[in-house]
Specification:
The protein has three helices and eleven strands, in the order αααβββββββββββ. The chain is mainly beta and 188 residues long. A six-stranded antiparallel β-barrel has the order 2-3-6-7-5-4. The longest helix is centred in the first third of the chain and has 19 residues.
Length: 188
């Protein structure tokens, strides 16, 4: 009987080790993430981000700065969550339009950017230029185009226009308010 005892102990220890490797108790290894949680993990996080984008002639078209960019890469698309994003559009070598907001989401390598929370678009140089305010706007930076279906307020000095929905062609300095337009104008 004594010759079997060491063999039984060794087999029991190997079995226990294999069992712990295959299904370890959560107290020893911590909770494993679900597949959904694992898929949502960011691929890259950049703090104090500064990016520059150039046109086909090689001159600076626009720049995007953000307190934080959290980048996710999916099978067929990508997404970047932006914290405190700022976009500055250039005409020639001078800044022309500046956007700020609380948050933003850039889709498909920045082809479409949705800004949310106290969005402001101001004509440069400040003060004195046109100022647009809304809660959400979609920008296509490469086309220098912006649109929203939300309430928009446009001010230029003492003049104020408010309406619902907007299309802004920033390169042409042209803005269209789509409906429910109300304006107040002070003559010089």
């Amino acid at each position: 009987m004594r010759t079997w005892l060491p063999l039984v102990i060794v087999v029991a220890l190997i079995s226990a080790g294999l069992w712990f490797m295959e299904s370890p108790p959560e107290q020893l290894v911590g909770k494993r993430p679900t597949p959904q949680e694992q898929n949502r993990a960011p691929d890259l996080v950049i703090r104090d981000a500064k990016t520059r984008h150039f046109n086909q002639e090689g001159t600076l078209a626009y720049r995007v700065d953000a307190d934080k960019i959290t980048f996710f890469q999916f099978a067929r698309r990508d997404r970047a969550d932006l914290t405190e994003p700022r976009i500055l559009f250039y005409q020639g070598d001078q800044p022309k339009w500046r956007t700020v907001s609380r948050t933003g989401v850039a889709h498909n390598n920045g082809q479409r950017v949705v800004l949310r929370g106290d969005v402001e678009i101001t004509e440069q140089p400040e003060p004195g230029g046109v100022r647009l305010e809304t809660q959400q706007i979609t920008i296509k930076p490469r086309q220098e185009y912006a649109e929203t279906d939300k309430l928009v307020t446009i001010t230029a000095g003492p003049n104020r226009t408010q309406g619902k929905g907007l299309r802004a062609f920033l390169k042409q300095d042209r803005v269209e308010i789509l409906s429910d337009v109300e304006s107040s104008y002070e003559p010089n």
